[in-house]
Amino acid sequence: xxxxxxxxxxxxxxxxxxxxxxxxxxxxxxxKTEYPKKQAKRPLPLKVSPKNIYLIIxxxxxxxxxxxxxxxxxTTLWCWFMVAVFAYGYLLIGNTIFSNSEIGxxxxxxxSCLIALGYIYEAIFKTTVATSYILPIVITFMIIxxxxxxxxxxxHNRSLFVSCCLMSLLGFLPIILYACKVTTTLVPPVIxxxxxxxxxxxxxxxxxxxxxxxxxxxxxx
Length: 221
Known about the structure:
Elements: H1 50-71, H2 79-97, H3 103-125, H4 129-153, H5 160-170, H6 173-179, H7 187-219
């Protein structure tokens, strides 16, 4: 019930706690709470997304590749590289194309996957291209793409300053590996180091204040 004088809910009592007047059941406002009827459960429609379609195709193609590789006379287990390529395609669709992750995270994830594919290729086909060529080339590409995205979206996505600087520092990794005699190829590591150094200098020159703000935000300094 509700008191006519105070307009407050008094429950089953006949005395209002505010005005201390007796409330007649005939004159009190009756409170009725009606809830909508519960709808019957409907079966969820089957969600067919590009990622799920690709996953089915990738699984079938991987199984076929493994069967062909092991049922035909060959000394190279190329099927496992194909499995890695299909897995990379799934990450490309699910974690990059149809993902709302930060642009820098997408670039770093794709670059890391491509470098991993390079080392898988090197292990399976017994080559030496991963450290000498794939690593510096992919890192250079990562720096160029992140710098381009920073130039385009720096007003709307300031966290790209941190991503661009971190990937620019990665540009020195191939030249360090060359100095440690892990690789004997000089040109790709030099290109990677020059690209990374240039991007780092430009980022610090034109966006030091924003970069400092982002580091304080990310690392809680």
